[in-house]
Amino acid sequence: MKLRVCIPFKLICLTILSILVFLFSGLPCFAQETLTKLNHPAPPPLVSTDKQGPTDPQELEAFIDKFFLQLKDGNIPGAVFVLVKDGKIFFSKGYGYANLEQKTPVIPDKTLFRLGSISKVFTATAVMQLAEQGKLNLNEDIDHYLKQFHIQNNQFKPITSAHLLTHTDGFDVAWSIGAATRCQSQLPSLEEFLSKNLPKRVRQPGELYVYGDVGIGLAGYLVEVLSKVSFTEYINQNIFKPLDMRHSSFQQPLPTALAPDLAVGYSYRKNAYIQSPFTCAKSVPSAGMSATATDVAHFMIAQLQGGRYGNARILKESTVQEMQRQHFTNFPNHNNMAGSAYGFYERFQNDQRALEHGGSIYGYTSQIFMLPEQNLGFFVAFNQEDKLGLREYLMTEFLDRYYPQQKSKTGLPKTHISAEYQRIKQIEGNYRFIRYPQDSFAKLWIVCFGSQPDVRLKTSRDGTVTLLPRGSQWREIEPWFLQYESGDSYLIFRRDAQGKITTMSLSNYVFVTHEKLAWYETIDVQKWLLLFSLLIFLSVFCLWLINLLIQRWRKRSSHVSRRTRIVQLLMPLISGLNLFFLLGIVLVVLQINYWEFFFGMPVAMNALLYLPILTTGLTTTLPIIGLTAWKDKSWSIAGRLHYLLTILASGIFILLLNYWSLLGFRF
Fold first, then answer.
1. Last residue of a domain, which of 491, 518, 545?
2. Maximum CA pair distance of the chain?
3. Cα(334)–Cα(357) distance, rounded to whole angstroms?
4. Could you please report the per-residue DSSP string of 50-95?
5. In Å, how far from its chain's centre is CA 122?
């Protein structure tokens, strides 16, 4: 194989390397611009007052008005805020526009917002109603209630309704792709959707909190099975009607009477507002609800008043207490650590225990925040994605203003143990936010482009543990239990039967758990493996192209055997197709809004996925044909080395494709 060219080989490689370094520096997959909750365990204190809760609606209005001035910074067209206290609506107000084009204002008791995952709290309430009536045992295997399909247990323990309501069911994260439609056709029934789309089970139930839609989707299906009516009808009759929620619905699209009052959802791209299509979620119990702020206020009042709203009651007081108490936490042996209730998750901040739940769906963002001990709660919603984290800021500013910390937080003592360096050393390594699918193309998107980049722990001999990239400092106060040096936040580590670290959880948020990565799973290693493969592919393709031009210029072809000629064709073909595949992936991802994947795999992406299958097949034939042509005397030493590097790069590339679920149609 003659690979003699006029242009120096080193110059080509250096040029290619420079281009790739430039490209990689701009890819979101390798950037860590988004700040994670793990790197910011405790928000900084803001200006406080001596008040314990809002007492004057006008003063609260001034505070909220000032906060919502930030809407312009977040490119949010409209918003709504409502606060309930002592069984009544204390304050409510709309901001901005429900429809930018028509200049329609947001009105709290008229304008509907899509609630996204806040739907899950209503589903959990329905399940608690059935449990209260004795139709459902929360601690019994859900398979006993299923008729048309069943849960495969295999090596796993049975799943209970309690597991579903606390996101500890053990299912793989799923439904990122094809979880919704644009509503042109009829939605599949909940039974049909679940029976065909249940993901595999990947861990024992009750082991880890991994937030997702699967468990709540199943919980909603149990409501259908046990009530013998559709989920939507059950919610209408047993929650919306008694709570006088006349402007709320799980129906998708909305009923004719409500549709005109729905706020238009927007995305903001290229300095322009773009209307988002109405998204019909296939898992209706997980994300299908729309409502006005006033209607959500009625629901919060019922939750805070022990199940009662006016003269109506949706749950007994004892059932509400059971629903709102902690049922799972990553810190079972420590008090005041965030955990999960049924439907809600907890927040401990400023000496307060809050129950909350957020929601996001194409073009909408919302949040429920309740302080049961203060008989108070608020709801906020935007008709745009909350990219600035305004919900989080609002909750923090509200607590700092109306419930300032009156005493130093008791928590755990800051007496650090004398850490054994060998034990602490085991903590060191890279960790990844656990909420990603293990066997779906969405893994690439969520890990590389999501809001929770990988983090790294670095240990020192003095017992200090540094959390990178932000550099926060932690110290061990109990074995496998660390405290943040600048606040009352904690990390706890789990180990497997062999004593190896498996996961790390943060005390502030029950859903923030990271798994420890093997060395080859880290982004840095994956990046350099990919870079190596790309360099080889580019060199093969460029040298083939240059040789082709030289042969045409000289008007003669090289005299090599047929087997060598096949190898000379296979190498640039495989390399070129792999390069085209990667370039195509990057272009599609950069041009498509993340939410578009919920409607299914884009046609262009689907077409691209044929290429890895083809190149994998061609790659397996390359070493076989190459071995038969190895004795060909026309092969130079440089050519043989280049051939071996091409096989190595192609093999590594196949492993990378498989790791990121890009080999085959896995979605």
1. 518
2. 95
3. 23
4. S-SS---HHHHHHHHHHHGGGGTTTT--EEEEEEEETTEEEEEEEE
5. 21
- Cβ neighbours of residue 611 under 8 Å, at least 6 residues apart? 577, 578, 580, 581, 584
Both tokens of 243, joined, read 């709570």
Tokens, residue 446: 């969520």
- Asked whether 616 and 663 are in contact (CB, 8 A), the reply is yes
Residue 604 CA to residue 623 CA, distance in Å, equals: 31
Q: Residues 295-317: pLDDT tens digits?
A: 999 999 999 999 999 999 999 99
Neighbours of 201 (CB within 10 A): 19
> Counting every residue, how long is the chain?
667
Determine, yes or no, domain membership for 204: yes
What is the model's pTM? 0.86
How far apart are alpha carbons 232 and 223 in whole angstroms? 10
Which run of H or E residues covers position 552? helix 523-554
Q: Which of 518, 534, 557 is the C-terminal boundary of a domain?
A: 518
What are the C-alpha distances in Å from 624 to residues 336, 431, 564, 634, 657? 63, 39, 12, 18, 22
Indicate if the alpha-carbon torsion angle 653, 654, 656, 660 is positive or negative.
Answer: positive
Q: Do 242 and 127 have their domain in common?
A: yes
Based on the domain organization, do 341 and 446 belong to the same domain?
no
Residue 537 sits in the same domain as residue 489? no
The residue among 592 and 101 whose pLDDT is bigger is: 101
DSSP characters for 444-458? Answer: HHHHHHSS---EEEE
268 and 197 housed in the same domain: yes
Q: What tens digit of pLDDT does each residue of 68-98 get?
A: 987 777 889 999 999 999 999 999 999 999 9
Closest alpha carbon to 467 in 436, 519, 506, 434: 506
What SS3 class is residue 28? Answer: helix
Strand partners, 371: 376
Query: Within its chain, how far is the Cα of 21 from the centroid?
Result: 28
Assess whether 478 and 548 both reside in one domain.
no
The shares of helix, strand and coil residues in the chain, as percent rounded to the nearest 5, are 40, 20, 40
* Whether residue 567 is found in the same domain as residue 510: no
Owning domain of residue 244? 96-348+360-368
Could you tell me if residue 147 is inside a domain?
yes
Range in 7-11, 279-283, 508-512 with the lowest mean pLDDT:
7-11
**How many structural domains is the chain composed of?**
3
Instruction: Kindly state the percentage of the chain with pLDDT values over 90.
Output: 65
Question: Are residues 326 and 230 both part of a single domain?
Answer: yes
Mark whether 553 and 507 lie in a shared domain.
Answer: no
In angstroms, the CA 466 to CA 320 distance is 41
